[in-house]
Design goal:
The complex is a heterodimer of chains A (345) and B (462).
Chain A lengths: L2 E2 L2 E2 H29 L6 H11 L3 H18 L1 H10 L1 H20 L6 H31 L20 H25 L2 H32 L5 H5 L5 H18 L3 H23 L2 E3 L9 E2 H4 L3 H28 L12
Antiparallel strand pairs in A: 1-2, 3-4
Chain B lengths: L2 H16 L2 H22 L2 H35 L1 H35 L6 H30 L4 E4 L6 E4 L2 H5 L4 H30 L3 H36 L1 H8 L5 E3 L2 E8 L4 E7 L2 H7 L5 E3 L13 H30 L7 H10 L1 H18 L2 E3 L3 E2 L10 H32 L12 H14 L1
Antiparallel strand pairs in B: 1-2, 3-6, 4-5, 7-8
Classes of the chains: A mainly alpha (345), B mainly alpha (462).
C-alpha cells in the first residue's frame, strides 16, 4: 500500500478525521457546555451575556461538524453508511437538536416578551444538553461495537438499541466534560455577578465530571474489556491514559488558582487526549463487529480509494490553514469580555 | 408504507424545505454586497441603512438554511447507506470540499458581518460581507457538482460487486466538470439571484405603496431591478443550454419533460398540457415539432422518446415531471416579461406611478421560489428510477438496516419541527419588514445619521 511519510493513506485519513472531530468537540463543546449551564443563570441579563459570549463564534464552530461529516463520508464511506444507519434514532435526534440549538440562539433576542425569551432559553439549554449526551452516546456505541454482517451492514435492533448502560455512561461523561469546559469558557468571557455565580457552579461541574469519568473508566475496565487490550499488549502505551489523568488533574488545580485561561487550555487538551485514547482503543478498527469479528469495519476495508484520499489530503492541506486563518481573525475580533452594547446587529 | 417510500418522502420534504433558504441567502447576499459597496464608495448613509436592513433579513434566512442543511449532509448516511457507500469517494469528496472551501468561509465571515459593524473598519466589514456571499456561491458549486455527477456521471470507475460495488474517482476534474455541472450551476446561481432580488423588490414595492421609506426604497428598487432583469434574461440561456444537455445525456428525462413517447419521432413543444401515461397521449397546447426545433433547429429531426427505454428504466411519474418542468418555464417567462416591462416604465419615468405594477411585484416574491422548487422536482423526478443515472437505482440505494417505523417516526418529527420553523420564519420576516430599515419617528430629512442612532439606541434598550 502506498505511503506518505511512512504512514499509509487510510491511517493518515484516520488522523485527519479524528483531528477534525476532536476540533469539533473542543470548539462546539464549550458552546454545549455554556448552553447546559444556561438555566442555572437566573436573570435575563445574565442569560443574555452568556449567549453573547458564544454568539459570534458558534457558527464557525459548527463548521467543524460539517467538515468532519464530509471527510468521514468521503474518506470512510463504508463506515459512514453503516454508522449513521445503525445509529438512526440518535443521529436524527442530534440533527433536530442542532436545529433547535441554532434557532434558539438566533431568535431569542428578536422579541422582548419574557415568555418568548424564556421559551428559547429552555430550548437552547435542553438542546445543548441533549447534543452533548448524544455525541457521547454515539461514541459509546462505536467503542462498544455492534453486530455487523459480511457486507459491513448493521444487523442489530432498531429504535432503542443505541441505549445501553455503557453508551449512557459515556453520554453523561461527555455532558460533564463539556459543562466543565464551557463553564471555564464563560468565565473567560464574563465579569461581575455572573462571573461570581459561574465560579461556584464550576466547582460542582468539576466534581460532576470527575465522578462520572471515574465510574465510566471502572465500568470500561470491568465490562468493555476489548478496549483496554491494546494497553495490556503494549505497556509503553500506558502513557496515554496517564496523560489523560494528568491533564484532568491539572484542571481543578488551575481553577483553584483562578488561572482560567490555562484551565481552558487543559480542558481542551483533555478532550484532545480523550480522542487520542479512543483512537488507540480502536485503531485500526473503526467499528467492532460484536458477533463475527472478521466483519469488523477497519480503516482499510472502509476507506475510499487511495486516489480520493490523496485528493482530499490536498483539500485539507490547502483549506485547513484557510479555516484556521478565518477562525483566528474572528476570535481576535471578538476577543475579551462580553459587553452588552450597541454591537448587537 | 415501506422504507423506500418513506425515505424518499423524507428526503424530498427536507431538501425542498431546505431549498427555500440558500437561494434567498445567495440572492440577498449579492445585493448586500452591492449596497455596502455603494455606501463605501459614495458615503451615502442611505446605502448603509439598506445594507444593514437586508443583513437583518439575511440573518434569518441564513440561520434556517444552515441548520436544515446540516440535516441533509447526514441524511445520506442515515437513510441512504448503500448510496453513501457506493458514491462516498465522489459525492463525499464534493461535500467535504463544500465544508472546507465554502461553508467555513461563510460561517466565519458571518460573525463579523452580523456583529462587527462597530468592531472593524468599514472596508474590513465589506470584505466579511463579500466572504459570506462568495462562500454561499462556492457552496452552490460543490453541491451542484455532487448532484450533477448523479445526473451525468463521468471520471469514475466501478470496483467490487453486488453489495460491495463502489464508484471510485479516476479523473477528479472530469468528475467536477461532468457534462451537466456548468449549465446546472449557472442555472442554480441565477435562480438564487432571482429568489433574492424578487424578495427585495417585493418588500420595497410594498414600502413605496404604503408611503414608508419611499426615498431609499426607490433607490433599492431600481438597483435590484437591474439585477433581476439581467438574471431573468440570462436564466433563459442557461435553461436552454441545460435542456440541450439533458437531451444528450439523459434522453429519458427530456422525453418526460415534454411527454414525448414515440421512440423515434419529431418532438412537440407544449406550452401547457396533461400527460395520460396509460394511453401515451398528451392533451394541450403545442407547437408541433417544436422540441425538435429547439434541439436541432429543424422541425423534422426525431427526438428519442420514452418508448425507446425499457419500462423499468423510465421515470414513472411522467405527468408530474411534465407539469413541474412547464410551470418552471412559465414562471421564468413571466419574470422576464415583468422585469422588462418595469425597465421600460423606468425609462419612461413612470416606474413608481403604476400601483398595479408595484402590487404585482409585491406578490411576485413567491414565484422564483416556486420555480426553483419545480425545477428541482423536475430534475430529480426526471432522473428516476435512478439515483445515479444508469448506475444505481433509487430502490437499491437505501439503508438496509433501517426499519419503516424509524423513518415514519423521523418523518413526523421533521414535519413538526419544520412547520414550526416555517411559522417562525414567516413571523420574523413579517416583523422585520414591518419594523423597516430605520425608525421613522426619528427620521429627519437629510440626516439619516440620527435615525441610525435611533435604531441603535432601540437595540440597546431591547
Amino acid at each position: 500500500m502506498e505511503t506518505f511519510l511512512g504512514l499509509d493513506y487510510p491511517t493518515w485519513w484516520f488522523l485527519v478525521v479524528g483531528g477534525l472531530f476532536s476540533g469539533y468537540a473542543i470548539l462546539d463543546g464549550f458552546d454545549f457546555g455554556a448552553g447546559a449551564w444556561h438555566m442555572f443563570f437566573r436573570q435575563n441579563k445574565s442569560r443574555e451575556i452568556a449567549l453573547k459570549a458564544i454568539d459570534p463564534t458558534w457558527h464557525g464552530n459548527e463548521v467543524w461538524l460539517v467538515i468532519g461529516g464530509g471527510t468521514l463520508f468521503a474518506g470512510f464511506p463504508v463506515f459512514y453508511g453503516t454508522l449513521l444507519s445503525a445509529m438512526y434514532t440518535p443521529f436524527i435526534l442530534f440533527l433536530l437538536f442542532i436545529i433547535f440549538r441554532g434557532i434558539s440562539i438566533k431568535f431569542r433576542n428578536m422579541e422582548e416578551m419574557p415568555w418568548w425569551r424564556k421559551m428559547w432559553d429552555w430550548s437552547y439549554s435542553i438542546s445543548s444538553i441533549m447534543l452533548a449526551v448524544l455525541l457521547g452516546v454515539v461514541v459509546g456505541n462505536v467503542l462498544n461495537g455492534m453486530p455487523l454482517d459480511e457486507n459491513y451492514e448493521y444487523i442489530g435492533g432498531g429504535f432503542f438499541e443505541f441505549l445501553n448502560p455503557f453508551s449512557i455512561l459515556v453520554g453523561i461523561t461527555s455532558l460533564a466534560l463539556f459543562m466543565m469546559h464551557g463553564g471555564i469558557y464563560l468565565l473567560l468571557k464574563t465579569e461581575g455577578k455572573l462571573y461570581d455565580r459561574l465560579q461556584d457552579l464550576l466547582k460542582k461541574g468539576i466534581i460532576f465530571f470527575i465522578v462520572s469519568y471515574l465510574i465510566t473508566t471502572v465500568y470500561t475496565l470491568l465490562y468493555v474489556t476489548h478496549l483496554s487490550e491494546v494497553f495490556r499488549e503494549n505497556q509503553a502505551l500506558f502513557v496515554v491514559p496517564l496523560l489523560v489523568f494528568l491533564s484532568i488533574a491539572n484542571v481543578p488545580r488551575l481553577v483553584s488558582k483562578k488561572k482560567y485561561g490555562w484551565a481552558f487550555i487543559f480542558t481542551s487538551l483533555t478532550i484532545a487526549l480523550l480522542f487520542v485514547l479512543v483512537a488507540f482503543e480502536l485503531f485500526p478498527r473503526l467499528l467492532l463487529s460484536s458477533g463475527i469479528e472478521a466483519n469488523s469495519i477497519t480503516i482499510y476495508n472502509a476507506a475510499a480509494s487511495t486516489k480520493t484520499l490523496k485528493i482530499m489530503m490536498g483539500f485539507v492541506a490547502v483549506g485547513g490553514p484557510l479555516v484556521l486563518l478565518y477562525s483566528f481573525f474572528v476570535y481576535r475580533t471578538f476577543w475579551g469580555k462580553v459587553k452588552v452594547d450597541a454591537e448587537s446587529y | 408504507m415501506d422504507v423506500e417510500i418513506l425515505s424518499r418522502v423524507q428526503f424530498a420534504f427536507t431538501i425542498a424545505f431546505h431549498y427555500i433558504y440558500p437561494p434567498l441567502s445567495i440572492g440577498i447576499g449579492l445585493l448586500m454586497v452591492v449596497f455596502e459597496s455603494l455606501y463605501i464608495r459614495t458615503k451615502n448613509k442611505q446605502y448603509e441603512v439598506l445594507a444593514k436592513f437586508w443583513t437583518k433579513i439575511f440573518a434569518i434566512t441564513f440561520g434556517i438554511g444552515v441548520v436544515t442543511g446540516i440535516v441533509m449532509e447526514f441524511e445520506f448516511g442515515t437513510n441512504w447507506a448503500t448510496y453513501s457507500r457506493y458514491v462516498g469517494d465522489i459525492f463525499g469528496s464534493a461535500l467535504a470540499a463544500e465544508g472546507i472551501f465554502a461553508f467555513a468561509l461563510e460561517s466565519s465571515a458571518l460573525g463579523v458581518l452580523l456583529f462587527g459593524w462597530n468592531r472593524v473598519k468599514p472596508w474590513v466589514h465589506l470584505v466579511a460581507t463579500l466572504g459570506v456571499f462568495l462562500g454561499s456561491m462556492f457552496s452552490a458549486v460543490w453541491i451542484v457538482v455532487a448532484n450533477s455527477w448523479q445526473q451525468t456521471p463521468t471520471g469514475y470507475h466501478i470496483v467490487g460487486e453486488g453489495m460491495q460495488a463502489r464508484a471510485e474517482i479516476v479523473d477528479f476534474w472530469a468528475m467536477v466538470f461532468n457534462p451537466s455541472s456548468v449549465d446546472r450551476l449557472t442555472h442554480v446561481w441565477l435562480g438564487a439571484f432571482l429568489a433574492g432580488s424578487f424578495l427585495i423588490l417585493s418588500v420595497h414595492a410594498y414600502y413605496i405603496l404604503k408611503g414608508r421609506y419611499v426615498e431609499i426604497s426607490k433607490k433599492a428598487f431600481k438597483i435590484t431591478l437591474v439585477v433581476a432583469t439581467i438574471s431573468s434574461l440570462a436564466q433563459l440561456f442557461t435553461g436552454h443550454s441545460s435542456a440541450e444537455g439533458v437531451a444528450v445525456n439523459q434522453p429519458a428525462k427530456l422525453a418526460a419533460f415534454e411527454g414525448h413517447f414515440d421512440a423515434e419521432a419529431p418532438g412537440d413543444l407544449y406550452l401547457m398540457g396533461w400527460v395520460d401515461k396509460e394511453n401515451q397521449k398528451v392533451t394541450g397546447l403545442k407547437i408541433p415539432g417544436g422540441l425538435s426545433f429547439m434541439l436541432h433547429q429543424d422541425f423534422e429531426t426525431p427526438v428519442t422518446g420514452l418508448n425507446a427505454f425499457p419500462e423499468e428504466d423510465r421515470p414513472s411519474q411522467v405527468n408530474a415531471v411534465f407539469q413541474f418542468y412547464h410551470l418552471m418555464v412559465a414562471i421564468g417567462m413571466f419574470l422576464i416579461a415583468l422585469s422588462l416591462f418595469a425597465m421600460w416604465q423606468w425609462k419612461r419615468g413612470k416606474l413608481f406611478e403604476k400601483k398595479w405594477l408595484l402590487w404585482t411585484f409585491v406578490f411576485t416574491a413567491i414565484l422564483p421560489q416556486l420555480a426553483n422548487q419545480f425545477g428541482w422536482f423536475a430534475a430529480e423526478m426526471g432522473r428516476q428510477p435512478w439515483v445515479v443515472y444508469g448506475l444505481l437505482r433509487t430502490s437499491d440505494a437505501l439503508s438496509k438496516s433501517v426499519q419503516a417505523n424509524q423513518v415514519l417516526f423521523s418523518l413526523i418529527l421533521f414535519f413538526i419541527v419544520y412547520s414550526i420553523l416555517l411559522l417562525l420564519f414567516i413571523y420574523l420576516m413579517n416583523k422585520g419588514i414591518k419594523n423597516g430599515p430605520y425608525d421613522e419617528e426619528n427620521y429627519d430629512e437629510g440626516s439619516l445619521n440620527k435615525a441610525i442612532a435611533g435604531v441603535v439606541l432601540n437595540d440597546i434598550n431591547k
